[in-house]
Amino acid sequence: MSKALDLGKISTKAGFNYFWGLVISNIISSVGTIFIINLLGSEAYGLYGLALTVPNLLMLFRDWGINKAMVRYTAQYRAENREPEIKSIFLAGIVFEIAMGLIMSILLFLMAGNIAQFFKAYGAHPELTTLIQIVSFSILAHGLTTAATAVFTGTEKTTYNSIMLICQYTLKTLLIICFVITGFGTIGALSGLTLSFAIAGLIGMAFTIILYRKIPKTTNYKLNLGKYLKGMLKYSTPVAILAVLSGFLAQFYIMIYGYFFEDIIPLGNYNAAFNFVVLITFFSLSITTMLFPAFSKLDIKKDKTTLKNLFQASVKYSALIVVPVAFIVMCLATQAVTILFPQDGILQSLFNANATTKLPDAPLFLALLSINYLTTAVGSLSIGNIIDSQGQTGLNLKFTILTAAIGFPMGYILIHNYSILGLIFTTIVAPLPSLILSIIWVKKHYDLTIDWISSAKILLSSTITAALTYMIVYFIHLSALIELIIGIAFFTIVLIGALILTKTLSPRDIDNLRTMTTNIGPITKIIHFILNNMEKTMTKLKLN
């Protein structure tokens, strides 16, 4: 357990450094998105999202899982004291990302006209061809940021990643707002997006050079990019196919909507909700990003006990964070959307109890999208990482094929009949069979189990707290801002009480969390204050 705690401590620190970059960059991005949606309107913003669908899809074919291979082998070689070989991993991965990004960007630019005509909205918006051509170059730029992120994650230097993200989203926000205000509309918004990606990619490459130069030199080792690229591709090919299927499935749903429906206003509502479910993604992405290198340092044959402890703790503690955040987003979605996208001005939404939003469907979409994150309680953030970290990438591919086999026909039928609601329902239901099978597989082959009682307690405590919060906010009928503040405060207090009364956290859990959160900066004091008071309360109530 001590070894698992040491790994958890390292991963928590790296994850926190990744987390604060996500938070700051996405706050900046969210502010920009609010301005963009209010400046463009829901129809133009729907066109903005539609134009991004194709490059987002082609980005999946650019990477071929090389970024994940870079993370895995960098973490593994560091654990095995083979650091000089990391130079070849860095260079092989970056060269591959740049080459594939350039090829994909040129192809999309040349084919933009034919692709634009696929969408029914093209008849009313022929400028869609130009929009796709503009964002085609974001594929190359994104390749640079992806390679840099892999380097930072594998070396656990996630502070560099946070700086890169903050620069990217600051530039994105400033450039898009400037271009839109000066009259360039959707073209300006997509130009600002592409340019911000390119600059961020160059910043990431600059930091990568710094890390590359710090790698120890040895006289008996020579670079061999072909050898290491071949090895990474062998590992990553199933990961690549998995990523293509998963990513294509997500873009397929949007494309099917664009094929069947000319009205893109609901798509604008969906895009807005999807952008602001990012509050949950802050936490989930930070966790999944750092779990993979932590698991990659361990071998199931040599470190079974450590891996078992780390896996069980990762499921419990990630659920303890992500599940309550998902529930609070669900029960306060209306207030959040009303504040961010008011019908009659921001000041009215803040202080008028009767304020409404210009995106009436977004609160429902946001609440439904949050349901996807509840599966954290049964290991959805950990299981895929544990399987890939042990080299079983082909198994995850099989699970993804199953999800795709369910998702394609289900999405086609439900989106055709139920529009955006059918889309969201498909994203919730289609992955569940694969998740269930993966839980069974890791139990059977690795003897890794989830603490089901703790997961049930976390879900129960969060559900009761969310229900009470929703009722309190529903009956007070104040301004959206006041309701949001009261809702968050009430949810937090009641949840802590529920976790104590249900004995979700044991004294050992509190000690583990204190250890894991020791070196994460100023927030350490806040977390330790909460944990210490929970421990005192449990002692007084004789619940420990």
Approximately what portion of the residues adopt beta-strand conformation? under 5%
- Give the number of DSSP strands: 0
Mean pLDDT: 79
Rg of Cα set: 23 Å
Instruction: Please count the helical segments.
Output: 20
What best-fitting shape do the alpha-carbon axes yield?
A: globular
Determine the structural class based on helices, strands and strand pairing: mainly alpha
Element order: H for helix, E for strand: HHHHHHHHHHHHHHHHHHHH
> Largest beta sheet, briefly?
none
Q: Distance N terminus to C terminus?
A: 21 Å
Low-confidence stretches: 3-8
Percent of residues in helices: over 70%
Verbal overview:
The chain is mostly helical and 544 residues long. It is 81% helix and 0% strand. It contains 20 helices and no strands. It starts with a helix and ends with a helix.
